[in-house]
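cron nightly-structures :: item 1 of 1
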Amino acid sequence: MTQEIEIEYKNLLTKQEFDRLLHGIPFPEHGKTQTNYYFETNDFQLKAHGSALRIREKNGDFRLTLKQPHPDGLLETHDELTEDEARKWLDGQISSKSNTEKQLWELGISPGDLLLYGSLKTERRETSPSDQVLLVLDYSTYNGQFDFELELEATSAAAGKQAFQSLLKTYNIPERETPNKIKRFFFSLEDSSR
């Protein structure tokens, strides 16, 4: 699928809250590692459009994803990359990928203006308590920082919001404003430059 609407709810966690969820819900004992490589223009055109571009490396596979605002969540546009294509992107040799390139041009962004800003590594655990909900526990490291996060992905906003609030209440976790990973990554760059 080259495009999909992502409906998800996120909450940053303390280490104690992370451990409560990890031991209270049947998550896998060991997580799987994935690395996100983040791209942006030198004048932050993607950010100005509320958008983000990454390559995710997971299990030896590479996927380029452009995330854009959508009334129901986020519109994700994907292109699969070979390892060679991904390595070239990471070395600044941006190749044409039809799905994401089309969306970038619609935003007025030339793919040739994209720069790699860095990476974020996540140890991820997933479980699906129902066919409408996917629960995700993430431990992420980036730019000398780390964080713990709960994500809940749902097939509908109504089902997702209800399940998310119920889960937080059950585990006595306060709901926190939680910027997505790419925003946290770029915040960390700003913090390190001060």
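cron nightly-structures :: done
Helices lie at 15-24, 45-48, 83-90, 98-106, 157-170, 181-192.
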